[in-house]
Amino acid sequence: MLYFMSDIHGELKAFKRMLKKINFNTKEDQLIVIGDIVDRDPGGIEIINMLKPWMKEEIATVCMGNHELFTSMWLRGKLSDRKWMAFGGEETLKIIKNFNFDQKKEFLNFLESLPIYIERDLPNFGKTVITHSGIHCDHYVYNEDGTINVIKSIEKAVEKDLYSFLVSNDIHYIPSGDLKKLDRYMIIGHTPTIRINEDRSCKIIRTPYYMDIDSGSGYRKDGGRLSCYCVDTDEEFYV
Ligand SMILES: [Mn+2]
């Protein structure tokens, strides 16, 4: 089985409960995490430490989220403590401040090695692009047939400004005329669905063009929860 999670935001207990709920079996299953493992709750680094050996064995794949970018920027001295804390980084900061030089260097290498997007051929969606935030409407690249080349558009936006790309929530607000032109289905996270769903529910959003699986982990006080999507059974799980 292939499972997707996104925006775990430090909720280690919820992550462990989810693995139990889906009966995650490292001999048979795979997990793709679409970024924002760290910040808000304190368990992000422990979750990454759980995922690292799985990543080596290709059991897990992790994409970069804006919070992994914030962490790498802080490690490079390009983001102040104050600003990172304003973005929800307080708990991660407390832990990383105690890292020694080698631990910091290793963690920075890890963060900067994370892919911005990956592509998978999925039985129910065809060729699918998996990326944290979706697309940035200022950087469309068109194919000859007038459709929007999702991969090239992401690459162009990233080349221009990775930060703006990873914090963009454009995909939820662009006209459906643009969405119809996307040449790939997309699975994303980043924008808690409670902010988009009209009934304010923390449920995965499915559209004909993309799926947003950030159901608000790290915002549990506001009703948020961690979701997981199984592409093989089309099931959604929540903890
Ligand atoms: Mn995000």
Walk me through the topology.
Blueprint: E1 2-5, H1 12-21, E2 30-33, H2 44-56, E3 60-62, H3 66-75, H4 81-86, H5 90-96, H6 101-113, E4 117-122, E5 126-131, H7 150-167, H8 176-181, E6 185-188, E7 205-206, E8 210-212, E9 227-230, E10 235-238
Parallel strand pairs: 1-2, 2-3, 5-6, 6-8
Antiparallel strand pairs: 1-9, 4-5, 7-8, 9-10
Helix pairs in contact: 3-6
The structure holds manganese (II) ion.
What can be said about this structure in brief?
It contains 8 helices and 10 strands.
Keywords:
8 helices, alpha/beta, single chain, 239 residues, 17% strand, 5-stranded mixed beta sheet, binds manganese (II) ion
Description:
35% of the residues lie in helices and 17% in strands. With 239 residues, it is of the alpha/beta class. The protein has helices at residues 12-21, 44-56, 66-75, 81-86, 90-96, 101-113, 150-167, 176-181, and strands spanning 2-5, 30-33, 60-62, 117-122, 126-131, 185-188, 205-206, 210-212, 227-230, 235-238. Strands 3-2-1-9-10 form a five-stranded mixed sheet. Strands 4-5-6-8-7 form a five-stranded mixed sheet, with helices on one face. The chain has eight helices and ten strands. The two termini are 19 Å apart. It binds manganese (II) ion (MN).
